[in-house]
Amino acid sequence: MIERQNYLKVKEHLKYLDEVLQLNPASVERYRFYLRHLLLWADDQNFRNVQTIRPTLPSYLASLPGKEGKGTLASASQKKIIDSSKRFFRWAKVTYPREMNNLPISWIDTLRRMRQPQLSSENVFVSLDEVQKIINTPVPENNLALLRDKAAAAMLFLSGMRASAFTTLPIEAVDLDNLRLRQWPELGVHTKNGKKATTFLLNIPEILGPVRQWDEFVRESLPGSSPWYAPIAHSWGDQFLSQDEPGKARSQALQKRLELLFSTANLDFKSAHKFRHGHAVYGLLHAQTMADYKAVSMNLMHESIEITDSTYAPMLSSDVQERIAGLSGKATSTPGDELEVFLNKLDRESQKKALMFIAGKLAQ
Fold first, then answer.
1. What angle do CA 249, 253, 258 make, to 5 degrees?
2. 151, 263, 291, 337: most buried, per Cβ within 10 A?
3. What residues contact 335, with CB distance under 8 A and at least 6 apart?
4. Among the listed residues 166, 210, 170, the one whose alpha carbon sits nearest the alpha carbon of residue 191
């Protein structure tokens, strides 16, 4: 049984996150989910004696079953619950100083996810080859839903958008002439944490075709405020675009449509988020400079390049293997060799400018 005072404190904390810190509703709901685990762990014991509860919070979380009862709770979920709990306890110490006086800050600081053996797992993402197979799979010309879904698969890979943003993206936010998308909440796009950004599509002509065809079709039939991934109505075997407002479970509907699409192409199903992974991996593998790497990170709407690196670096293991294997076959290079190669690539006029620049530096 959950201790009533614990419940009231968590409720007050969520109100603080909402009204004082002004977190968006989706973020507050995530904190509610994380702190529910804290309440269940503490059970009927008051938070003021929380350091005496056994098993400890990290041990308790490590013992919880994972999704669909398989394995254990995901490592990332355990970390988020513990981080949310630490934030809550620090807030509680300040808000209820007398009642929480016996809870040491040092105990709060020691909360951390239990160290666990790193399990071997294959990083899954949608490849360009898979997207090409999907869009090249023949479908009946009168099956509007499958034609839309093929365009969606290409768009998800080219854009790296989250499913929630993609399914709420209006037609007016898509600018294919400049390969530009306006992921703006004021246009109705449901981005993570309400972030706003103008992002860009990968310029891969072989899979841009279905996207352009669908874009032209919906623009002729629907107003700019309608979703680009438009709802489709059925009547007596016919399919047509609908101007009805999409339901709240639009992202889940997309997943079901993708399952059918993968099945039609005789491929193993991969979720919409795996297209985002595929976009990132493709971009990072083709990045030649740190500026390219940063551009990929920004296009994914990540707060920092560290997030991109920590999330997608493990997916580049095959590329790392190829590069390491190839090192032994390469001749040793020196800075002078690299400079000579660079200068030889310049045209005559650029070489003159480089010479003048170097002469000026030497004269200083």
1. 150
2. 151
3. none
4. 166
Among 85, 130, 89, 164, CA closest to 264:
130
Q: Compute CA distances 13 → 25, 26, 67, 89, 112, whole Å.
A: 14, 15, 27, 10, 21
Three-class secondary structure of residue 184 per DSSP: coil
**Residues 6 or more apart in contact with residue 96 via CB below 8 angstroms:** 9
Instruction: Quickly count: other Cβ atoms within 10 Å of residue 266's Cβ.
Output: 8
CA–CA gap between residue 81 and residue 103 (Å, rounded): 19
Pick the CATH number of 128-277 from 1.10.1200.10, 1.10.1740.10, 2.60.40.10, 1.10.443.10: 1.10.443.10
**Closest of 82, 42, 33 to residue 61, by C-alpha:** 82
Provide the 10 A C-beta neighbour count for residue 173: 21
Are 37 and 81 in contact by the 8 Å Cβ rule? The answer is yes
pLDDT mean over 301-307 = 77
d(CA 167, CA 108): 40
Tell me the whole-structure pTM to 2 decimals. 0.69
Residues 6+ apart with CB under 8 A from 33: none
Alpha helices (H) along the chain: 4-19, 25-42, 57-62, 75-95, 105-110, 128-136, 144-159, 163-166, 205-221, 250-264, 272-286, 290-299, 305-312, 317-327, 335-345, 348-363
Q: Residue 72 has what pLDDT?
A: 85
Looking at per-residue pLDDT, the higher value among 349 and 132 belongs to 132
Tokens of 5: 């005072």
Q: What are the tokens at 236? A: 């007596």
C-alpha separations of 64 from 10, 96, 167 in Å: 21, 30, 33
Amino acid 206: pLDDT: 93
CA-wise closest residue to 234 among 340, 146, 319, 311: 146
Contact assessment for residue 211 and residue 156, using Cβ atoms and an 8 Å cutoff: no
Contact 171, 219 (CB under 8 A): yes
